[in-house]
Amino acid sequence: MATTKWSIDPTHSEIGFKVKHMMFTNVSGKFGTYDASAITEGESFDNADFSFSADIASIDTANADRDGHLRSGDFFDAENHPKLTFKSSAFKKINDGEFELTGDLDIKGVSKTVKFPVEFSGIMTDPWGNTKVGLSIEGKINRKDWGLNWNSALETGGVLVGEEVRLNIELQFVKQA
């Protein structure tokens, strides 16, 4: 069976995250510039091969000062590590519409294996004849696992920035001719 290449549709995708601020509210952000692709056997996503990269300079939390701090050496160090990347090693079907995605996430020169549950929305044809597939990924990582250690203690106890980063990723891929 022939392999099929799928490319990200950035106008219908979003790479989002949330982190606790001052231990009780969430700050949301997203990456504005990214690329992703998938390789499948035919149109079956069983054992699909995914790759993803995001430009650190495109981080957006709706606050220019915070975004600048996130790009600095205290966090992502965008000057020396301009991209974060992900390369899958497995995409296993759990049951109808549910998969588990495993792969290596590389942030700031540190690579760690991660697993995320994926909701597979199915394959559809849009009004212009393009074959598309939708995926939703929600997961958690600990930012300190990748050396994103900066924090500040609060006078009331606790810390300014939570360690857990919750991912909320919506991906739409387009089948390539």
UniProtKB/TrEMBL annotation:
SUPFAM superfamilies referenced in this protein's UniProt entry, alphabetically: YceI-like
Residue span, Lipid/polyisoprenoid-binding YceI-like domain: 5-174
Family annotation (SMART domains): YceI
UniProt-listed PANTHER family: PROTEIN YCEI (PTHR34406:SF1)
Protein name, entry field: Lipid/polyisoprenoid-binding YceI-like domain-containing protein
Protein's organism: Flavobacterium crocinum
